[in-house]
Amino acid sequence: MKRLIDFLETLGALGAFAWQVFWSTLTSPRYFKETLRMMDVLVRRCIIPVGLAVAPVGAVISLQGIDVFKLFGAERMLSSFLGTAIVREYSPALASVMVAAQAGSSIAARIGTMKVRGQIDALAVMGVDPVRYVVVPGVIACLVVTPLLSVITNFLGIASGWFFAVPIGGVDHGAFMEHLTAQITAADLWVGLGKCALFGLGVGVIAGFLGLRVKHGAASVGKAANDTVVNTIILILLTDYVVSMMLLGMGL
Amino acid sequence: MSKLAATIDAYWNKGLAFLRFAAHALRTQLTTLPPRDAFVSQFVDAGWGSLGLLTMLTIFAGLNLSVQSYGSFERFGGQDLIGMFAGIGGVRELFPVMAAVVCGARIGANLAASLANMRISEQIDAFEVMAVDPMRFLVAPRLWAATLALPLLCGYADFIGLGASYLGAVYQLDLDPGSFLTQVQDQVRMVDVFAGMFKGLLMGWMVAIIACFHGYTVKASDGAEGVGISTNLAIVHGAVLCIVVNLLLSWVMYG
Amino acid sequence: MAKTEIQTHGLGSGPGAGTAGDAAPAVVLENVSKSFGDHHVLRGVSLTIRRGSITVMLGPSGTGKSVLLRCLVGLLKPDTGRVLVFGEDVAALDETKAKDREKLFAIRRRFGMLFQDGALFDDMTVYDNVAFPMRLHTDLSEAEIRERVIDKLHRVGLKGGEQKFPAELSGGMRKRVAFARAIALEPDIVLCDEPSSGLDPVMSATLDELIMEMHRSLGITFIIISHDTAEAKMVADTIGMLANGHLVAFGPKEEVFREDHPAIHQFFARETQGPIKVV
Question: How many CB atoms lie within 10 A of CB A37?
């Protein structure tokens, strides 16, 4: 019972925090330079892990899918399945999970370290709102960078899928390319990008929230980094499911 | 150019240090028994502690697998194949990999953070000064715990995930339950579950050794920042490694 | 002065205890140098520490006092020079070799160390922290261990609270528990890393009295690094001074004070000008 109350309390605090972040982005002062710097850092740091994580997924889909599709003499259709699965589902979800793992945990750890060292209090004493200066740039950077990364991973995922389907699996290159583009609609692309933006936003807000909740001691910095990853992965899978159900209901 | 060379040199040295650490840890792990209490508490933390998270995530992943593949298969009239898809894609790949990535991230982050915290507060030095081998008392039980917990979690995820896919297919998409089960029976062998658990075994050890390395080798002078950095590195390197190793293993097993 | 019976520990002495040259001085450093990159922390330090002495090594922060301490127990390896502990060269032992590691561990069993922030194990209670080295290095029954843990805790002035965790203790309490852990095996040498740092003057004086009491009752050799001049005056019989990586003064307390070495004078008189440069 007490745990339930604690959980609801935390959820309430998170809601209030998200509202504070939202309000801070709408009003000045804004720290554009800090925001750009964060974006730069995030792109540099995330691009390799995100690429390394998403590329094998396309390969695995081809590897496992080719036999299944062959059973029905439909290996031409492999590419259309690969295309939609990567663009709509796996690229956004995995890119976001990796952004959570890399960017989310490092943002939470950085803010947590600042808190432990008293730098957050120092900012506040100097009249700089820590939420505006430390949290908001991270949230905006995650929001913008995640979809960008997902565009790259779309190509990577499909390229690795192609590699395992055409040269290794023996599917005809022409058929692969033809069916690949035939099934991907503009809606698929927008759905994928929209999900990424949503997940990125979640990563940034949760990382900021948990980072600022660090109390004292180095151990709690590690815990904040860890909790950020776990909680955002839950959020990503849950949202993914809800969005899929809604889209299915709308017939998209 | 010299900056690039310096970076490469730094990575090279780090890689060598990692190999030395891994060899030392593996030797300790295999030649000495870890202290029982430490192993049990680490195992409970890694296994039991991940169970709630894993259950929730695999339920969503299983449901998602049905719902999402329905959207893709419907376009060429293959919606009746979802049982087969969930069986092959889920049991062979998605569920074990997800268990490895998510539980690996959680376990790895905990290991790195705890060791890094012990390093910066000089607790590891205290072990050394008391003539107690920290490899044996701190690292080995953590390695054993993760190596043994992750395969069990992967096996567990297979069942929960497949169950969720079934529920999603039958109750949300109104597919024929009999056809779903027949397809699963036709396509999934117990061997596939064991293959997933074997992947878990390898990934468990790798995630743990990477996390222990990052935590153990933190500089005491880095303080709280070092704990954060090592946790972050453990999560990212562990997750990427799980996905890449999974591809290689699948390639060998099914390619 | 040194009580030779003590060196057999009384408690399940490990291999090596009491073997290597019992007549040798506790510690001899010969021309020890250590640098980190371009930063030369120790430049050819040589000294001899008698058994049963209390040596306080003074010096400004960042002059390698802590590095010196770590070299003694093989936590760090000097670049050059020899570190003889009871006649055995710790610096020559290669930790990656199993045989050397055994030897190193045998030597370490003769040490206790009081770390700067205690370095108590977070996941163990006060009781388990103090009992830990006994459980690992002796064959004592749990009842005997309990008796000794309580005794050690009493010696450092702690009664009750054995089941508390380190996070629940004040800074002074943590240091005292760490002290009890350091003397748990009644070691020959106890190293203290800045024992008075982070403590109020009353608490640090209490700790200093404890050091002298342990020295009297257990015959332990103490090597203390500190920048607390009051502490040095109170507990030391030998004083050393490290500055810029060099050992600029070393000897019996009275002699060092009588010689009025400029660095010692500057340190004790808290002057900003002198041989010690602020970087």
Answer: 13
